[in-house]
């Protein structure tokens, strides 16, 4: 017999989705950050950029906020790099960097008013979902033992880390 938890999703994708998003995919000792832009035609990816990152071994244990801060900073830097590359192709676009903030990149304030990024989060650990975008980590697997995460909502922890990293999403 198969153990399953509800996903709280009420509708399957149609294949006509459009737009762009960034994503984090964590499920082991590596994780990926990515950018996807869906084409206007059905089931087509117009643009894709994926970077695989090795997690430092010391982040698999200890305080869980360190893990989520690492994810957030990596995503922040990926988005800033991506937007900087876009600005090379668009006049008047720029990424704002505050030198007083020790390299923190403000990706929310660009001269062409690029909106805050949409971020998807694939968290491949046992989570009891309470809605489509929230849930509670039931237990760590795959060698992770970070404290302060089991019994908490990984989406909330990532969101807090993104705010600390200067990357509101």
Task: Give a structural overview.
- It is a single chain.
- Helices cover 21% and strands 27% of the residues.
- The chain starts with 18 loop residues before the first strand and ends in a 5-residue tail after the last helix.
- The chain has helices spanning 64-87, 154-164; strands at 19-26, 30-38, 45-54, 96-97, 105-106, 119-123, 127-131, 134-137.
- A hairpin with a 7-residue loop joins β4 (96-97) and β5.
- Strands 3-2-1-6 form a four-stranded mixed beta sheet, covered by helices on one side. A two-stranded antiparallel ribbon has the order 4-5. A two-stranded antiparallel sheet has the order 7-8.
- It has a domain at 21-37 and 45-54 and 61-124 and 153-164.
- The longest helix has 24 residues, at 64-87.
- It is an alpha+beta fold and 169 residues long.
Instruction: Using the alpha-carbon principal axes, give the shape.
Output: globular
Radius of gyration: 17 Å
Number of strands: 8
Average per-residue pLDDT, rounded, comes to 81
Strand content: 25-35%
Helices, by number, come to 2
Run of helices and strands? EEEHEEEEEH
Strand order, sheet with most strands:
3-2-1-6
Helical fraction equals 10-25%
Report how far apart the termini are: 39 Å
Q: Mind describing the biggest β-sheet?
A: 4 strands, mixed
Unreliable stretches covering 5 or more consecutive residues = 91-114
Global structural class:
alpha+beta
């Amino acid at each position: 017999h198969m153990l399953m938890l509800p996903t709280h999703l009420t509708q399957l994708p149609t294949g006509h989705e459009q737009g762009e998003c960034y994503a984090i995919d964590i499920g082991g000792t590596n994780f990926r950050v990515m950018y996807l832009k869906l084409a206007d035609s059905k089931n087509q990816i117009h643009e894709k950029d994926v970077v695989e990152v090795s997690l430092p071994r010391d982040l698999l244990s200890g305080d869980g906020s360190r893990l989520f801060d690492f994810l957030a900073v990596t995503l922040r830097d990926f988005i800033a790099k991506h937007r900087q590359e876009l600005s090379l192709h668009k006049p008047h676009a720029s990424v704002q960097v505050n030198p007083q903030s020790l390299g923190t990149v403000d990706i929310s304030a660009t001269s062409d008013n690029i909106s805050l990024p949409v971020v998807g989060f694939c968290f491949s650990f046992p989570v009891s979902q309470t809605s489509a975008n929230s849930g509670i980590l039931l237990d760590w697997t795959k060698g992770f033992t970070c404290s302060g995460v089991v019994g908490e909502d990984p989406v909330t922890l990532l969101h807090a880390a993104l705010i600390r990293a200067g990357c509101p999403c």
